[in-house]
Amino acid sequence: MLTSYVNLPQCHAGEADSESWRRPQMGPVALNLVETWDVIRARRNVRAYEDREIAPGDLDRILEAGWRSPSASNRQHWDFVLVTDPGQLLELSTVWTAAGHLAKARAAIVLVLPEPEDERHRTIDHYDLGQATMAMMLAGADLGIGSGHSAVGNQEACRRILGIPPDHLCAYMLALGYPEGRPLQPIAKPNGAHSTKWCTGVTGRRPRQSCRTVFTPAGPGAPGLIVPGR
Prior knowledge:
Elements: H1 36-42, H2 56-68, E1 79-83, H3 86-92, E2 107-114, H4 119-142, E3 146-151, H5 155-162, E4 168-177, E5 213-217, E6 224-228
Antiparallel strand pairs: 1-2, 2-4, 3-4, 5-6
Helix pairs in contact: 2-4
């Protein structure tokens, strides 16, 4: 059975946090509110987790962030399946070669899509899941909860583990847990000792300048030119 989170509470009160990058308490309720830019800088992929439960209200907030994310024409062609059973998490860690971190996660969200009408809508729906994934990652970082995404290779196994109908696709998985050893903090320069090459061969972040391009038409009827930023 798929679970679509469409009637979630508007917000959840959190515990006061002493970390300096979080805002002070506001009003009579202690809210885990942080500056947006600090959350963006603090979020990183986390694949090692503390043996510490995640409060149901915090999981609801992360799911609500996905529910609130934008989608093309407001299609919302998604289901977010929350998994907290350790046995299922262990099984899900085997459905992709780089999903081993799910075995030690405290929870995971599996993003599920119905089979698309055509290739155009397949592309649209996957883009929308990317937006939902990032929204949930940032909501988790706001609460000090780390996240690590993963693809799904063995569709048959994933459907069996979660009881997903055969006309649906297990698109991606998002593992959740409190980071082991290094709590989330804003990263001033994401090129330090904790940066890794992994499969891309790139250490740390590309220079910001290398990500800037300008599309310049070469003339009437001529193809455009991509000019590297300087």
